[in-house]
């Protein structure tokens, strides 16, 4: 009888990197990264737009909209951008964790609770399969999140510098 590699894996099913990847990919929140570029951007825009409900009153307390309209708008936008940044960080951490587990040759897992951690070395077939999944599925998502984060940080930096310049000239 030929034993398949999945028959001798001691790692619980829910802790196997391939299953963790599949679960993350199918989850409501983490699947955003798998959407088209415009659909992903639309999700982030909605977060930015809804977070204006929180950031605008805070900005209005510091910069009265009637007197300092432009500064108020920039400050509100910056505050909302923080929510988008937190969202990107959470997405990145989730995908980076799975990527790390897929890349490693050894898997740390728990059999029944926190105090009985075990380490299992992946067979070559598992390792190669996980490397392929990482290289072709997870790594592009991580790179997309990194590019989006750099773009957001750049926009926030420009907004912040603009805010400082406007304040100094008024």
User: What is the helix content?
Assistant: 55-70%
Main pleated sheet: 2 strands, antiparallel
Radius of gyration, in angstroms, nearest whole number = 22 Å
User: What is the helix/strand order?
Assistant: HHHEEH
Task: Give me the count of strands.
Answer: 2
Mean pLDDT: 92
* Assembly of the depicted chains: single chain
Strands of the widest sheet, in order across it, are 1-2
Tertiary shape: elongated
Q: Give me the secondary-structure category.
A: mainly alpha
Terminal CA distance: 82 Å
How large is the count of helical segments? 4
* Percentage of residues in strands: 5-15%
Low-pLDDT runs = none
In the residues, how many domains can be counted? 1
Tell me about this structure.
- Strand 1 (about 105-110) and strand 2 form a beta hairpin.
- A two-stranded antiparallel ribbon has the order 1-2.
- It has helices at about 15-25, 35-60, 70-105, 125-170; strands at about 105-110, 115-120.
- With about 170 residues, the chain is mostly helical.
- It has one domain (about 10-170).
- It has four helices and two strands; from the N terminus they run H-H-H-E-E-H.
- It holds the Pfam family CGLD27-like.
- Keywords: Membrane, Transmembrane, Transmembrane helix.
- This is Ycf36 protein.
